[in-house]
Amino acid sequence: MIPSIKTAVLFSVALAASLSSAQGDAALVGTWSTKSRKVITGPGFYDPVNDKFIEPDLAGISYSFTSDGYYESAYYRAISNPTTPHCPSAIMQWQHGTYTLPGNGSLVLTPIGVDGRQLTSSPCSSDTGVYVRYEQAELMKSYEVVTDGFHNVKRLNLFKFDGSPMQPMYLVATPPQMLPTQTLNPTSAASPTGKRRVKRTDGGDGDHEQEPLQPLKQNAFTTRLANKDSFNPDHWWWAGVGLTALGTVMYMMPTSV
Ligand SMILES: *[C@@H]1O[C@H](CO)[C@@H](O)[C@H](O)[C@H]1NC(C)=O
Questions:
Q1: Which of 6, 40, 159, 167 is the most buried (most CB within 10 A)?
Q2: Is the residue at 196 inside a domain?
Q3: Does 104 sit in the ligand 1 pocket, CB within 6 Å?
Q4: Is 240 contained in some domain?
Q5: Domain range for residue 154?
Q6: pTM higher than 0.70 for the full model?
Q7: Looking at the record, which segments are called Disordered (predicted)?
Q8: Confidence at residue 197, expressed as pLDDT on a 0 to 100 scale
């Protein structure tokens, strides 16, 4: 029987995880992006010099991995709110750090806590985006790199801590497109220069101010959200996702040494 040409024939080219070393897996190396390919890690997504996000044209997710154990991730997603369907909130997240392969098929991502960033903007409930430091370790229960036989392009399937699949990502760059892998810690240079504007391109109504990053204090995440939008269910939904994601989610406060 000849398989339909439309059938994506998937060859698993790499599932093996190194048993002993913290070195990377050659199959992971590169920059991966979801279907739209508009979200790509690196300087086109996060500008560490000016400490600000560059908003992509479309939502998506991107991960990059090096051969020597570094990773970078970029998320840009709309969050629809049933009460204001015409006016979705948007969230951008950026992290980088190291990854390890503990040898059981899992992929463990450990971010550099001081460097992660998150911007949440709710165009209808506020003119100002909420810009905070962000740190969330991630456990991918398993991963696989396959060749999508139909599109003839390498595809990365990541399975979250609970085994549920993430959106598939496709290889868009080798070597990976990443910011420097060491600690950037741009906060020290992030003297507030006044409010910055972020242009929304998703049909939202115009510009939104991006606040200068404030160092997070204890409970800053919930406190800031509570102060801003106590009753915005989006925020609590995301907070819930964050808190249940790993059991080890940490919105860590930078301790000023
Ligand atoms: C693999 O090992 C890591 C680290 O010990 C652990 O967190 C993870 O849950 C393990 N994965 C599986 C699938 O058991």
A1: 40
A2: no
A3: yes
A4: no
A5: 22-173
A6: no
A7: 180-215
A8: 40
